[in-house]
Structure formats: C-alpha cells, structure tokens
Amino acid sequence: MQTRPVEVTRGLREACMSCSLQELCLPRGLYGQDLERLDALVERQGPYHEGDHLFRIGDPFDSIYAVHAGSYKSYTVDSEGREHVLGFHLPGELLGLDAIYPGHHVCNALALDTATVCVLPYARLSSLASQISGLFTQIMRLMSKDIADTATLAGDFTAEERLAAFLVGLSQRFQLRGYSPKEFNLAMSRRDIANYLRLATETVSRVFARFEKEGLIAVDRRALHLLDLPRLRTRCESLGSR
Amino acid sequence: MQTRPVEVTRGLREACMSCSLQELCLPRGLYGQDLERLDALVERQGPYHEGDHLFRIGDPFDSIYAVHAGSYKSYTVDSEGREHVLGFHLPGELLGLDAIYPGHHVCNALALDTATVCVLPYARLSSLASQISGLFTQIMRLMSKDIADTATLAGDFTAEERLAAFLVGLSQRFQLRGYSPKEFNLAMSRRDIANYLRLATETVSRVFARFEKEGLIAVDRRALHLLDLPRLRTRCESLGSR
DNA sequence: CGTAGACTTGAGAGTCATCAACGTAAGTGG
DNA sequence: CCACTTACGTTGATGACTCTCAAGTCTACG
After folding, report:
1. Is B24 exposed, middle or buried (0-12, 13-18, 19+ CB in 10 A)?
2. pTM to 2 decimals?
3. Can you give the pLDDT at residue A17?
C-alpha cells in the first residue's frame, strides 16, 4: 500500500536539466538529448512532511527514488518490534535500490523534515538505460557506491570512533552539496543516530558531551558546529574507507 | 598490479551455457542467442589456491568476477593494519561490485581453497547490457541483493545471534547450490568468522561450544553439522531480513 | 502553563574483549 | 619415525566499554 496520495509536480519540464543536484544525481555525464529523455520520465513528488512515509516494507517496488530536497531515513523493524535505522539520505542520493531484487520494499523510508523526491519508474528507467549507455554506467556507479558505503559501518568500533566517523561523513556529504562542512543542522534525533550507529541514545549523548568538552565540536540540540575537523578525523582514522 | 598471471581456460565455449550455476549467476533469465552472447565474453580464470589473491586494494577495476568453484573472502585493511572481513563468496556470487564507482578495487579478495572465477570484463558487459535488456535487469537484481545483504549484519546483535544468523545463512546458501543444508565444511577459519561477525575468535569458539552443548550443532574443526536448524533459526529471528 | 517527548546525567550490571595458557593438527627436516 | 615448528583452536580469569535502569532537565507545542 503506497502510503498516501501525494501531489505530483510535473508541470515544468526540465526537472533534471535545471536541477542543482545534477552533479550528484543520476544525470551526471548525460547531455543534450539523453538528458532530455531521462528528464521525461522523472516525476517530482512531494512535499512530504516530517514523519510521512515514502514507502513501507512490503510495498510493491516499481520506482527508485532520488532525494531532491530535505532528508529521509530508511529503517527496518525486526520480529520483536525493534527499529533498525539503515541510513540517512540527503539530496542527490537514491532510495529503494534494495527493493529491485525481491520486487518489493524491504525497508521503510520516511521524511525527517519537509522533503521531496524525484521518482524514477524502474521499468522505464531500465529500458532507457538499454538505449543510453551513459545512463547504465551511472546507475551502476551509484549502486556500487551504495555497496561500498554500507560496508563502512560494519566494523567493531568504539562509540567515539563511530560517532566521529558519522559526523565527518555528514560533513563531507554537506560539503559536496554546497553547504558548510563545519556547521549544519542534524535532521535526525539522538535516538535515530544511536540506532544507526548501534549505540544507546545515552551513549551518543555522552560522547557528544565528551567531544564538546574536548573542544572538538559545539552542539546545541540539533545545531552542530565542527570546531576541529582535523582532530575529529584522527578519531576515526581506522574507518579509512570513506 | 594484478597479482599474478593465471591460466585462462577459454578453449571450450559454452562456459555459461553448460554451467551448473546458471540459476544463481548472471544468465538467469537469458536464453538462446542472448546467453550465447554473454557466454562469448566470459572467461574462466584459475584455479587459484588457498591464499592466492584474486585482486587487491588499488588494483584497477576492469572486470566483475563470478565465483565458479571454491570460495573467496573479501576484506580490507585499516590504517592501523587491522583486517576487516567484508564477506565470504560462494559459487554463483559476484565479486568486485564495489569497485565500479571508484574505478579501482577497494577491498582485497583471496581464495579460501582451490577456486575458480568467471571474468566479466566490465566495458564489454555494459555494452552488452544495453543490447540485452534482460542482462541489465539481472545485473541490477544482483547488485540490489548485495545492498540488502550487507545491511543485514549491521545490527547490534549478541554474539549468539550473530553466529546463529551466520550459520543459518550459510546453510541456505549451500542448499541453493544443491549441497546439504545441514552438513558442510567451513572454508574459513575461526579468526575469519570472528572478524566478519565483529567478535573475538575466543568468543566464536565459546559460542560454538555453547551451541554444541545445547545440541544445536555438532562441530569438529571445520566440519559442521546443524542438528537443530529450526531452533537455530529462533536464535536469530531478529535478523529476519534474510 | 502544563504536558509530552527529547535529551542529559548518574549508578550498577552484563556482555564481550583482552590476556594468558594450553591442546591439537599439519608440515618440516633430521 | 620422531622432535620441532607453526598455525589454529579451546578454555579460563580479569577488566572495560557500553547497555540498562532511573531520575532529572529542557524544549516545544497545544
């Protein structure tokens, strides 16, 4: 069951062609007519509001989503009802790739704030990818990146290493999108961060406090200031693959 | 630097067409002429022997590998020299998908026993994928599965849950390949298992002993006997996504 | 202004890592 | 064939990191 009917802002063509995320998103490396053809199958969807679900476990898979604005979290719920956060998704990143294989969604995705997505109907996308070799390449690249990234968190690292890596990673992703790498707002709660990093919320709270005491960061609720990025990096050097 | 020159068993065509792994590997869903065209670009490589590297971090990426026989492990080495096992790969599974994005390998892969692979040159594969829509679909499916699988281990589970899930997962994979799901040999050492599950080798040893005492398994060195698969499953229910 | 939820802080407990010693199997060279 | 070596695996004792439980603070919102 797709969660709820949502406005589809089609109207203006050139969703991709004028999008500021071109460099991060699928169209990278596509030009002219190829880009127009991709543009023709993309639909903007939203806005979703905080807590709205983009899709849920079991929903039939028919589209991949690219975050256009705002941010999302994806998560599963295990047999005992416990939630497991799989990732946070910023503009330009794809959602729903893990649903291709089984043909239905295997995780939930919800908006962490007011957010929109670009909908890429999979059937049309794959037929287009057969015609445009650059598109095939780009899809493969993004999926490959996804595989490499999910492997990063799978270490047995300390709470400090995990949180430092998380903050450094976020910083890099914000910078790529043209935002300040040293100052940004966390869209997600402590509980979500803790769950994502496989820690207790209390531990996250304590490590934040420790980092602040050491002058690494300044944090006020969701507002974050990375004061000493170099030293923060040394705190998570072992997770080098980022 | 590709590790070492290895014999390439081309010779007989029909590597894919007669392969017993067809149902697991890429050709699934391809027939007749399409299969022949895929077959034409695949080269069998090996045999590699225990400890031989298939590729190493930094090696230029130009091919995806499909395990044909034997088993491999993939792993990284962090800045402090510690090894991190990313996965074990059985016949029919793909290796090197995470190298597409960066264009070079981001992990090492080595043979755990005498093993062979099928080499899929990426450039030729992607051009073929634009001609055969079923091939594109299949590649996407396999990458999607990879993404979903790597997410599975990322929970904060107990040592028992992790090991139970590992054994159950292995069992399923062996069964899919036509082997007994209850009796098989572990190709990997305790140290590798422990590293993969983010545990100490001693912990793995102890949990094996505990499982044996409970009558869940019988284990002698690498020889494993799953005596009570149902009860083993209940031990890792929370990792339900498998 | 009051309540609910998010966040913080403290104290105690448990799981697992570390350190250490020992047992076993396989391979080597005499 | 037997000491010797090496890698692997098991078992025990101790300690640390982080979870759990609990109470308290702060913020947002109705």
Report:
1. buried
2. 0.88
3. 83
